[in-house]
Amino acid sequence: MTRPEETRNPLEKLLGLFTEVKAGEGGTLLLLAVNVFLLLTAYYLIKPVRESLILTGGGAEVKSYASAGQVLLLAIAVPLYARLAGRFERRKLISIVTLFFMACLVAFYFLVLAGAPVGVVFYLWVGIFNLMVVAQFWSFANDVYTTEEGKRLFVIVAFGASLGAVVGSKMAGLLLGLVGMAQLLLLACALLGLSIVLTNIVDTRERRRGRAPDKDSKQPVDENIGPETGAETDGEGMGKTNGFKLVMRSRYLTMIAFLMLLANWVNTTGEYILGKLVSNAAAEAVASGMAGGLDAGAWIGQFYSDFFFYVNVLGVILQLFAVSRILKYMGVRVALLILPLTALVGNLLVIALPVLAYLRWTKTFENATDYSLQNTVRNVLFLPCTREEKYNAKQAVDTFFVRAGDVFSAGLVFAGTTYLSFNIRSFAAFNAGLVVIWVILAVLIGREYRIKTASGES
Fold first, then answer.
1. 329, 151 contact by CB (below 8 A)
2. What gap in Å lies between CA 417 and CA 235, rounded to an integer?
3. Quick check: 410 and 64 in contact, CB under 8 A?
4. Are the beta carbons of 170 and 41 closer than 8 angstroms?
5. So what's the pLDDT on residue 456?
6. Which pLDDT score is estimated for 219?
7. Which of 5, 12, 45, 453 is the most exposed place for a label (fewest CB within 10 A)?
8. Whole-number Å distance between alpha carbons of 244 and 238
9. What is residue 236's predicted lDDT score, i.e. its pLDDT?
């Protein structure tokens, strides 16, 4: 129940400086923000370890090709997740999945200590871990809030993610030289354990407030998409229908899926370009004695720690002071266009100046926009969907289709380096062409979202 406006507590008034927060919403909102903060902190503790292991164990090309392998694993993982979602209610589902990834982190800790060649395997695992755990959190947040609440409050929840990315990347940079890479994995494992605790607290809190959704409830859907016809439910589960089937029978979800594919294709190719320049710069720094006593792997790890830190600082600034205002005054349709237009400008600059110093800051701004505004918007798009779509279809979109973009990027890198003699400018030019298609798709999704919500936003 929402308390009268005049009884808003100090926390709700403070959060109200950044977006509209009504009485009674502050507690759950803060818990969700802290929860995703822990998840992103854990991920960014792991991320420099991933970059160091993969780039020293094979280079930028192997990193690009390894991304394609994640799609094959996700083709298996997504249907398995749907089965779990159909069997368990949301609290047990999230706990089971998170505990599995915690066990994996402990196993990798011992493998890294033993010096095992786990670069490719760990890279594959991190890609699946990040997508599935974070997508699962946002499915939970979508389940907690209505469409109207989510549009207002996701700004604060996403701020927790942005802040976690900043803290995690900075902690990784500080701890990498003090405790070593393997210990970062154990710290990330502990943070995942805390996130399980917070999920249980939020779930219990919402049930006591009478906010737990009924197992058969459905969010309103567009008549062109239709209701959850034929969706299987089991107990308090989220439905067993395969996420891929849910995506393909909905025009709206299909467009979102291919938007995610395109966006990640563009971003991963950009990361290949950056990784190539970073690897070259590390080799040159070590050879010239300018690496400050670091070997190539440590130099790369330090570069990415700093890079992620500045990306996420800018992301936090955008999340706090720009995202809520863009959504409120410009609407979802305009917000969907900002990242692709940013990526277009960035790739055009790379074509003109393929230098690490320039590329670093171009990617910093692009990734910061992705992690703040785009992250919020793509989760808002799922608010008017059914519960089953929020859990099962969202897992398919946020994991398989995202990694499918990696497959296309890997294919481009292979063809470009093996047959087409692409240089950095050539890859950036290809990216610019993809962004044009991305813009068109974003326009179509914005129109469909307006129909589904009937909000009349411009």
1. no
2. 52
3. yes
4. no
5. 42
6. 42
7. 5
8. 15
9. 52
In a domain, 6, yes or no: no
Distance CA 5, CA 24 (A): 9
Mean pLDDT of 59-77: 73
In a domain, 399, yes or no: yes
Classify 160 as helix, strand or coil. Answer: helix
Tell me if 36 sits within 8 A of 51, measured CB to CB. Answer: no
End-to-end CA distance of the chain: 31
And the tokens for 18? Answer: 């950044």
95-135 pLDDT tens trace? 999 999 999 999 998 988 887 777 788 888 888 888 889 88
Closest CA to 79 of 259, 245, 227, 254: 245
Least confident range of 26-40, 212-226, 270-284: 212-226
What span, in angstroms and rounded, lies between the C-alpha atoms of 230 and 241?
Answer: 8
Instruction: Quote the pLDDT of residue 221.
Output: 37
Alpha helices in 180-250 (DSSP H): 181-208, 243-248
343 band by pLDDT with thresholds 50, 70 and 90 = very high
Place of tokens 């947040």: 141
Residue owning tokens 């277009």? 344
Q: What is the pLDDT of residues 431-455, one digit of tens each?
A: 999 999 999 999 999 999 999 887 4
Distance in angstroms (rounded) separating the CA atoms of residues 259 and 443: 11
Coil vs helix vs strand at 86: helix
CA angle 20, 25, 29 (to 5 degrees): 90
Task: Tell me if 268 is assigned to some domain.
Answer: yes
As for how many domains the chain has, the answer is: 1
How many residues are there in the chain? Answer: 458
Q: Half-sphere exposure of 385 toward its Cβ, with a 13 Å CA cutoff?
A: 31
List % helix, strand, coil for the chain (3-state, nearest 5): 80, 0, 20
The amino acid present at 249, given as its one-letter code, is R
CB 56 within 8 A of CB 119: yes
- CATH number, domain at 138? 1.20.1250.20
User: Which of 391, 32, 39 lies closest to 202 in space, CA to CA?
Assistant: 32
Structure tokens at 72: 């094959």
Within a domain: 94: yes
Task: Check: CB of residue 90 under 8 Å from CB of residue 238.
Answer: yes
The per-residue pLDDT for 210 is 64
**Structural domain for 237, as ranges:** 21-453
